[in-house]
Write a structure and sequence with these properties.
Elements lengths: L6 H4 L7 H9 L2 H24 L32 H37 L1 H16 L2 H11 L5 H10 L3 H14 L3 H8 L4 H37 L10 H10 L8 H29 L1 H6 L1
Helix pairs in contact: 3-4, 3-12, 4-5, 4-7, 4-8, 4-10, 4-11, 5-8, 8-10, 9-10, 10-11, 10-12, 11-12
């Protein structure tokens, strides 16, 4: 019959079959290398921190202004207050990763959910959510974060991460909405409607699997952005004063004149750690992109 849609065109077409995603990721060099570096950083920090114990973070536990190259707590040098850079790093790495995890989870989940609802249901729901998304996109988030951090001093790492996440949902919401507007016109969605599936069942059962690879890549981007934002706030003196992060390490190094005293190890080690962390996450992002985009996978 002329103009008829072939039956196989009516079925959902996931970008990657669910049972092959794990295999593709496990054989993707970028994803594997990035994941190994990321997990290695975290596990090393936790293991060394557990071995050193909480006493290693105490001020004056080692001689001040010692450079790198010596053993034990002085392996990475010390600060002007006699604090071990190695001990600080074992606390800073997990805390910075916690900021990224919490903020990226909030931003991706909230943004993905609002984008799905806005794009699929349309009408008044879309009109209200679109205005809300546009307002948050127009707001200078960094300026508001600086203002909030300046007013609410003394916040811990989880609270700062939650505040960063509260401003991280608008971009994924807009992107998911645009993709859902396209996907909901596909034949398999029409078949789902004719089969009696509810709107929520179509959103979660048919559309969400197609968006998961993209949401994973967005999660990594949000993770990087959150760590970078927290580091920026800390360097400005607006970070957590109770917990050590990589940004806080840089702040204290600059605050105590590490550059003027040529104590390069104090600021260089956390900066290098941030670079390695961002490189690892970028490689993971490239691997997830190749899962979401078959063209990239064939070119790799």
């Amino acid at each position: 019959m002329a103009g008829a849609i072939p039956f196989d065109e009516l079925a959902p077409r996931p970008i990657v079959e669910a049972h092959t995603v794990g295999h593709i990721l496990s054989t993707n060099r970028k994803f594997v290398v990035g994941s190994v570096i990321f997990v290695g950083l975290l596990l090393s920090a936790l293991a060394i921190g557990r071995a050193l114990g909480p006493e290693a973070l105490r001020t004056g536990i080692v001689p001040a202004k010692q450079g790198v190259g010596t053993a034990g707590l002085l392996l990475l040098g010390s600060t002007t207050l006699g604090q071990s850079i190695l001990a600080q790093l074992t606390q800073a790495i997990p805390n910075s990763m916690m900021v990224g995890l919490v903020a990226a989870t909030i931003g991706t989940l909230v943004g993905g959910l609002l984008g799905l609802l806005s794009g699929y249901f349309g009408g008044k729901v879309d009109a209200v959510l679109r205005v809300l998304i546009d307002v948050f996109l127009a707001v200078p988030s960094l300026l508001f974060l600086i203002l909030i951090a300046a007013v609410l001093r003394g916040l811990g790492v989880p609270a700062i991460a939650a505040i960063i996440g509260a401003f991280a949902w608008a971009w994924p919401a807009r992107a998911v909405r645009a993709q859902v507007l396209s996907l909901k016109e596909r034949p398999f969605v029409q078949v789902g409607m004719l089969s009696g599936l509810s709107g929520i069942e179509i959103v979660w059962g048919e559309l969400m699997p197609l968006l998961l690879p993209w949401l994973g890549a967005n999660f990594i981007n949000a993770f990087i952005s959150a760590v970078l934002t927290e580091s920026g706030l800390s360097i400005l003196g607006l970070g957590s004063q109770r917990d050590m992060t990589l940004g806080q390490m840089i702040f204290w190094a600059l605050n105590y004149g590490a550059l003027l005293q040529n104590m390069w190890w104090w600021w260089f080690i956390p900066v290098l750690t941030l670079i390695v962390l961002f490189l690892a996450l970028y490689l993971v992002h490239l691997g997830l992109d190749e899962v979401a985009n078959p063209r990239l996978r064939t070119q790799a």
